[in-house]
Amino acid sequence: MRDSRPQSLDTLFEDAATVGKSPLQVIQQHAIALLKLNRTVLSLLPAQLHPWCRVANYRKQILVLEAGNASWMTRLRYEIPCLLSTLRSEILPSLSSIDIRINPSLMVKSDNNEQGFSKSSTKAFSNDNQELPKRQLTHESAKTLMMLAENSPEKLKRKLERLAALAGEGTSTARKKR
């Protein structure tokens, strides 16, 4: 069981010579090892996978990789046998398996091409509705919705008619609260 009691900051920053290894040093060493492992794994993978995957963790002899979405995860799974045998023979002889998880934040990060956040990416994260692209329902689509509403149950009919009434108006891509 993990010790979750509050700790003094002094114990986190104490010198390694007096106490052994401080918790922050252990975390720092693990992070450095993961960065080195990430570089090695990326060098073994095809170039098109580099922006879409990374090493997330290595513990209990299991390497955890993250992929940007399900399609990149599937592509990465094809590389597991080669990756597993190479890592076992060169770096991690105790490696038992590789686990892949989806992390959608890799898709956002990779859109910036590792150049930091550009103006367009920061706009996507802002809450200004003026920055979002506008959508518009055409009159033809409104007629189709009205025809569909004629043969629909009452509850659905009201919603389709309300949607058809928006024809010609510009609507934001963000949801409006009602």
**N-to-C SSE string, H for helix and E for strand:** HHHEEHEHHEHHE
**Broad structural category:** alpha+beta
The total count of helices amounts to 8
Mean pLDDT: 79
Helix content: 40-55%
> Main sheet, how many strands, which sense, barrel?
3 strands, mixed
Strand order, sheet with most strands: 1-2-3
Q: Report the span from N to C terminus.
A: 47 Å
Going by CATH, the architecture of the largest domain would be 2-Layer Sandwich
- CATH class category name of the largest domain: Alpha Beta
List how many beta strands DSSP finds.
5
State the shape. elongated
- How many discrete structural domains? 2
CATH superfamily of the largest domain: Fe-S cluster assembly (FSCA)
Bin the strand percentage. 5-15%
| Residue windows where pLDDT falls under 50 for at least 5 positions | 110-129, 172-178
- Oligomerization category of the chains in this entry: single chain
Radius of gyration: 26 Å
